[in-house]
Amino acid sequence: MSTVDPAAPVPIWRQIVDDLRRRADLGEISGQFPSVVGVADEYGVARGTANKALQRLAAEGGAVLVPGRGYFVPVPV
User: Fold this and answer.
1) Which residue of 31, 36, 46, 74 has the fewest C-beta atoms within 10 A of its own C-beta?
2) What's the predicted TM-score (pTM) here?
3) Residue 1 pLDDT more than 70?
4) For residue 37, is it within any domain?
């Protein structure tokens, strides 16, 4: 299980975004990111927090949302 620090000054969703981006950059995650439920389970957070993290990751260009399929690691151009 990946961990987040609820006492940190950084919001939990931001900690998740940063960790998912780091893991994708290292090749630990390739292809598809975990689902909202998968992220929630992995980090021990609420589904709403996991959803916000994935949405922000996509908004920042760190993931691509394919409706009905999920979030994917972007392919470098």
Assistant:
1) 31
2) 0.93
3) no
4) yes
